[in-house]
Amino acid sequence: MSQYQQDQAAFADLIAQNGTWNAISPEYAARMKTQNRFKTGLDIAKYTAGIMRKDMADYDADSAQYTQSLGCWHGFVGQQKMLAVKKHQGTTDKSYLYLSGWMVAALRSEFGPLPDQSMHEKTSVPALIEELYTFLRQADARELGNLFNKLDDAKANGGDVAAIQAEIDNFETHIVPIIADIDAGFGNEEATYLLAKRMIEAGACCIQIENQVSDAKQCGHQDGKVTVPHEDFLAKINAVRYAFLELGVDDGVIVARTDSLGAGLTQKIPVSNTEGDLAEQYNAFLETSPVEDLNALKNGDTVMKLNNEIVKPVRLPNGLYKFKDNTGFDRVVLDCVTSLQNGADLLWIETEKPHVGQIAEMVNAIRETVPNAKLVYNNSPSFNWTLNFRQQIFDLWVEEGKDVSAYDRANLMSVEYDETELAAVADEKVRTFQADAAREAGIFHHLITLPTYHTAALSTDNLAKGYFGDQGMLAYVKGVQRQELRQGLACVKHQAMAGSDLGDTHKEYFSGDQALKASGEDNTMNQFD
C-alpha cells in the first residue's frame, strides 16, 4: 500500500471517530497532504542535505556524476527552471538551485539596485530561500493536482487507474538543494550564526561563505578584495556548523570560498602563538621591508618579527596591509586545505577566467593534503566566455605550430570569426567545459551565479524592441506566446500556473457543488487546451 493509500485509510478512521466531520473526504484530505509533503523549511533542509551528501559520494565514485545549478532571483524563476529541467531531462536528479548574493543585492533590496558589497538587508537572503521553496512546493501541488484529475477521469471512464496511481506514488518532487550565499557572514561570527539559522530554517541545506572582510566585501570579480586571517574565517565556519547542528540538520553542507587568488590585501595581522601556526603562515605572505634602523621608523609604523628578522609590513593609506605579488596560488591552497581540515565540506575558488588547467593545478596541490577535495565552481557571466575560449584555442594552435595567420588574437570576439574553424573548436570546448572540469579539475558542482538576471534583460529587450517598434503586438505573439505553445510551456496558461486550478479544486473540496469556480466555459485560458 502506497503512502497516499495509507493516508486515505488513516483519514477515513479519523473522520469516522469524529461524527461532525462527515463532509470531509478522506481521499481529498490525503491528496492535500500528498501535495504538501514538506511542512517546514527544516523538513526541506534535512531532505535536501541527504541529496547533496549522496551526490557528493556519487561524484567521488565517478566524476561524470557532477551536479549543476542556475542562480534564480525570484521564486517563479526557480519554479520555471525546475519545471523545465524535469520536462526536458525527465528528472531533477543532480540539478540544484543557486541563491546568489549578487542578485539579492541587485534585485531584491528595499534600497533598490545595489553592488555586491553586503549592503543589502541580510533578512532578504532567507526570505528568498523561503520564496523559492514556496514556488517549488506549488509546482509539486500543481503537477500532482493534474495527476489527481487524470485519476478521476480514469476512474470515471474506465482508464488505466493503476498506471496513474503508480505515477502519483512515484512522483518526483521539484524540491532540490539550494546552495545559498551568505557572503562573508554579514558581521562577526555571532551575526553569521544567527543569519545561518534563519537560512537553514527557510530550507537551506548548503551555505557558502567567503573569506573576505565582511564590512569591506566586494564582488568576486571586482578589484579591492580584502581577506581575513584563517582564524577569523574558521570561526565563521564553526558558527555555520553550530547552526546546522542546533537545528537538527546534522549533514548540512558548508562551502568555503576563497577569494585569495584575486585579493592582494588583508585588514589585520593575526597573532602567532606557536612557530609555524596558521597566523605565521598567513603573515609570511605579507609584503615587508627590513627594518635596519629603529630610529628611522615613523609614528604609527607597524613592525614585526618574521623569519627571525625585524620587518615592516607594507601598509596602505587606508590602513590595509599588502600581500606579496604572485602569492595568490599558494594562499588559495593554504586557504582550501585549512578550511577542509576545519569543518568545510566543499571548496569554491574564485578565478579570473574559466581555464580547466589553471583550476586543476590548484586542486591537485590541495589534493596532495586532502585527496577527496572537490569544488563548487562559478561559471561566471563576468567571464567573456567566447573570447576566453577562442584565445585558448589560438594559443594551443600556436603551441602546436598550426598556422593562425588568419586570426587576430586580440580581436577574436569579432563576428567575422563566428563561422571559422577556430570558433567551432572553441565552442565545443565551452560545451564540454563542465564535464572536462569535473573530470580533470575536481569540480563537483557547476553553477552560473546570475544567468537569469541576463535572460530577463535579454528577453525584455527583444520584446520591447519589437513591441514599441514596427512589430506591435506581433512581437509578443510571435516571440513569446507562440513559442510558449510550440515548446509546451505550462505557463502559457498563466492563470493555472498562478494557482487558479488548485484553488478551484480546493473550493470544490470545501463547498461541493456550490463552489464558484474560475475554470468554467468563459475562462479564456480554455483557448490553450
From TrEMBL:
Pfam families per record: ICL (PF00463)
Catalytic activity: D-threo-isocitrate = glyoxylate + succinate
UniProtKB keywords: Lyase, Magnesium, Metal-binding
Gene Ontology molecular functions: isocitrate lyase activity; metal ion binding
Cofactor: binding comment: Can also use Mn(2+) ion.
Keyword hit for Lyase: yes
Superkingdom: Bacteria
Residues annotated to bind Mg(2+): D181
GO terms of biological process kind: carboxylic acid metabolic process
Cofactor(s) named in the record: Mg(2+)
Signal peptide positions (record): none
Active site (record annotation): C219
Protein name: Isocitrate lyase
Source species: Opacimonas viscosa
Organism classification: Bacteria, Pseudomonadati, Pseudomonadota, Gammaproteobacteria, Alteromonadales
